[in-house]
Amino acid sequence: MGNHQKRSFTLSQRDQRRCSQCPGRSRRPRSGRCDLPHPQLLRQSSIATPPCGRRSLPRAQASFSQSQRFQFHSQGQRGVTLIELLATLAILALLVSFAMPSAKRLVDEVRAETAIHSVRGGITFARAVAATRNKPALLCPLDADGRCHGDWSHGFSVFVDRLGVAERHPEEPVLRTFAPVPRGASLRFRAFGTGRYLRMLPNGQTAWQNGRFEYCAPDGSAALPRVLVINIQGRGRIMRPEDIDPARTQGPNRAVNC
């Protein structure tokens, strides 16, 4: 006799009540019989069949309605308290306070590199202009009257100095303008002769203006200076804090006074 065979048998009052609660089963109220597997077959079967033919737990779970599932789910949810939220915000603020100095230093490093590379690019451009036009090219910060005022922090321009007077005349157009350094920072040109401008000759050399450009960060930190050393041949070399000797007062790698 197979496990799936069914037999009608007399039920006890308890089984009759349990069977009457199962609307999907056929029952015989008059004879007190119900289409359930025989108890002997249930003992022989490896699958325990609950009353009313519910053979497995997943099938019983499938009979739940959507509202019952939502109610069952919502009972297991739990929010956070005000104390837990405040503790989380305090930890987050502490981590941000630790990360802010490193982020600020990184931003200052990027700005310093950008500023000193801008000066180097301006010198390279001025050398190219002087060589291609066979005229001296001037790199200097201009004021409203076209004169070189010597304040390199507010930006500088490149133009051809046809008359050799270190001034831009209306017939001398500005070939390129370079942006100023960040607010609070400073850029100086300390050179042999004058630091108001840098004149590049057609042969690629300077007009005996060997010197160096010094960049200082907005906070004047001695750990963030940048130096661009210019020799007479017009070549530049960038020096960073690890290349500068704070104890020296002479030479290209001397200390920077920000």
Write structural notes for this entry.
Strand 2 (27-28) and strand 3 (33-36) form a beta hairpin. The longest helix is centred in the middle third of the chain and has 52 residues, at 82-133. The protein contains five helices and eleven strands. The protein is of the alpha+beta class. The protein folds into two domains: 7-68, no CATH class; 103-243, minor pseudopilin epsh domain (minor pseudopilin epsh fold), CATH 3.55.40.10. It has helices at 13-20, 39-44, 57-62, 66-74, 82-133; strands at residues 7-10, 27-28, 33-36, 137-140, 156-160, 174-178, 186-191, 198-200, 211-216, 226-230, 236-239. The strands form three sheets. A four-stranded antiparallel sheet has the order 6-5-4-8, covered by helices on one side. The protein has a four-stranded antiparallel sheet with strand order 7-9-10-11, covered by helices on one side.
Looking at this protein, list some descriptive labels.
258 residues, alpha+beta, minor pseudopilin epsh fold, 2 domains, four-stranded antiparallel beta sheet, 31% helix, disordered N terminus
